[in-house]
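Appendix B. Chain record.
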Amino acid sequence: MAKKAEIGVFGSSGFYSFLDDVSEIKIETPYGPPSDRIAIGKYNDKKIAFLPRHGKLHQYPPHKIPYKANLWAMKSLGVERIIAPTAVGSLQPNVKVGDFVITSQFVDRTSGRDCTFYEGPITVHVSLAEPYCPELRKIAVDVLDKMKLPFHPTGTVVVIQGPRFSTKAESEWFTKMGWDIINMTQYPEVLLARELEMCYVNIAVVTDYDAGVVASGNVEPVTQEMVVKKFAENNSKLVTILKSMIEKIPQERHCQCGKALTGARVEI
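Structure tokens predicted for this chain:
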């Protein structure tokens, strides 16, 4: 069966504007329906699939997002690469509001999320030492460098359960641990992509200073209104980043993401 899409993007409807021949399709998966209908279009002779991870009406809070259905739906379309923009809070003074971070590591502080396709009797232990695709990360770094945007080529995100934001005590602890940014959706999204042998990259947009612990001056703790406002301000930049990345992504993969399950299955 011909691929319906090559590259998947988890984003908002504002990202669809640069695509040609856009159509929306409804997909059913063994894990229930994904967050919403998937929009499929073309850019630079590549087929692109877009899915709002929270749903078009933001009806899914972070801990209720159907991550497995979302990733399985992308895989079923033929997608091999995922570009995943997210809003994040800063945990370090040098990571400023408006900066971009090409995430390189994560720390999971969630609880009870459905986080693997392998529930048994098949057991698979996938390697996640380097959770983000090195090939896509390099492309993202090159694009942001060429655009002369303020960005960090590496960064560790701590993923919290949500939907609440952190207390000041928690935020201070995360900062002292040396983690750079904070988010509610990176886990298990990146892990599930690896289990399906898809490449995955996170383009993080810093929208706030979390609980305000590391901010200079009189900065209020993060609010949802603040996150939405700052993320929207960067939408046009994100669209340009996505377009440039799509143009640079080669037809063939040169990373090991497509071999993630090799040797990972427990054989008795």
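Further analysis of this model is presented in Appendix C.
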